[in-house]
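Working notes for the structural subgroup meeting. M.R. asked for a predicted model of this chain before we commit to crystallization trials. I am recording the input and output together here so anyone reviewing the notebook later can reproduce the run.

Input as submitted:
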Amino acid sequence: MDRAQRFSAVSGKAMLVIGCSAVLTSLVARTATTSRAWLALWISECALAVVISLYSMSRKLGGWQELLNSPSCKRCALVLLPTAVSGLVTTLLALRLGWIALTAPTPDWLPGLWLLFYGAAVFAGGIVSLIEIRWLGVALFSSGLLSSFLDWSAFATTIVGFGILHIIFGVILWQRHQS
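Returned structure, recorded in token form:
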């Protein structure tokens, strides 16, 4: 029966917290003078968002075992992870190839690229999850496209994509699903 179920353990409250944390990180990262400092802030933010997400999902499902044993959670992870890992590998390759110099300011194109990968991953996860997650994926991907073609600054891209969109969709999920 669970095979037909959608993964619904996504927490609107947690998404709201993640969005607020991303806004704060955007504000702090704006003052970073090197890519090394900027990347350290955003890698920390990403790790924090993952921890918040996993913790909130485990609480919503009743514990870590329930989260890890949930077939719908496993399906969601299987469709989300390849694209998310591709974004990580692309960032590492950009560093290795010198497209990102750790001692120079962060290139404005990097957050837009991250949003393209992240949006695609979230959209894929939304196929086996709540419809709002799919729309969040579309919004994230679209903000990555806009950032890429309108030459948004790294600050504008991160505050809109990782901050404001998570806050908006967090509130929507919280209202619709009471969690």
